[in-house]
Each structure stands twice: as structure tokens, then as C-alpha cells.
Amino acid sequence: MLTDTIVCGIASIDKTLFSQTGPCPHCGGAAAPYDTKKKIYATLHTQDGKKKITVLVRRYHCRDCGKLLYAEEPFYPDTRIGSAIVDLATALSLVNSFSHTTEIINAMGIDIDRGTVRKYAHSNLPIPKINFFYGLPLPFSLFTIIGRTMSRKLSAAEGTEILAASGFPSAYRAPQDGTGTSHSIQKQREKRGNQKAAVNGKQ
Ligand SMILES: [Zn+2]
Fold this sequence. Notes:
By secondary structure, the protein is an alpha+beta fold. It has one domain. Helix content is about 40%, strand content about 20%. It contains seven helices and six strands. A hairpin with a 2-residue loop joins strand 2 and strand 3. Helix 1 packs across helix 5 and helix 3 crosses helix 4. The longest helix has 21 residues. It starts with a helix and ends with a helix. The chain binds zinc ion.
């Protein structure tokens, strides 16, 4: 039931166009449409095998400085899977080992490996807002996306709606001092784990 709901929610993103943009961030010049790039948001395990969920991201070029610009997209900077999936990995890693986090995500029908989970958990990405759902800490972003299908709003998802639900991830900039990032929280967890191990070792 949970798996179906999550798979349906993520599948509803398939082929959504992201085209929202502003002036050039480098020089303030006007952005002119250039082309549209297909990016993989997630790979799902369905009854018919693996299914790649893709999104279309419009690219622009700046009329003044000529730089290539991407529309706002549902990806954090320098990541290769959709931001709600990254949020899921960092949220579950708060209370589970990386291996167990990987197992839970795979059981939800979403393709991910332990190395990827670990990489995002130890990145400077934010800790997402969390909602408990069937006893699991799910990120608000994923919860909102699957909520669409639960409320039977089955029309194709709109880019702006997904961006808002995801907290505009492509505009995310890590805090200079690293406070509150997933990496800083994981370091605290490791420290507590080491302290516990030291105490147990003395007994
Ligand atoms: Zn420019």
C-alpha cells in the first residue's frame, strides 16, 4: 500500500516541464530559451520492471554574457537524482544505518544504492522537514508529492507545484559554517555512537 502510493506519486512527475527562470544570475541580462534537457528524476521498480521517471528542464542562454542557464529544477546543485529522493535518503539516515536506509528505500520501489545514500547523508545538503507516515519519517517534499495522488488529483503535476513542494532545491546554497546540514548531523550521530561504544567497552 505504502509502496504503491509512493511509486504512483513519483510516477506522476514523469515528463513534467520545468521552465521557470529569472534574469541571468551572472550579469542580470535577459534569458532567451535555448533548448530542453531530459534528466532522470528517479528509477522505480514496477511490476513491469524498471521505469525511469524523467523531467524536462528548459535551458536558456543569456543575451548579454552568453552563459548557459538552467530553469529552476527539482534537483539540489550537483546531484543526480530528484530532490525528494535525496530528502528521503537524508531523512531516513537520521534514524537508520545507511544499509537499512537503502533497504527501506528499495522496499518502497525506488532504486538507490548504499554508496549514494551515504554520499547524500554526508553532504552539505539540508535536513528536510519531516512528516511521520506509516511510522516512517518521510520528508515533507515526498509527502506532498504522494499527497497529490492520494487526494486523487491525478492530472499531470506542474513544475511550479513540484518546485514549491520541494522547497526550490536548485536555489539551495549550503551555509558557510555548515550548521544544520545533513553532514553535521551525521557527525553528531557518529560521535554519540562512539561514546556509547566506549561506555559499552568498559563494562
Ligand atoms: Zn548573463
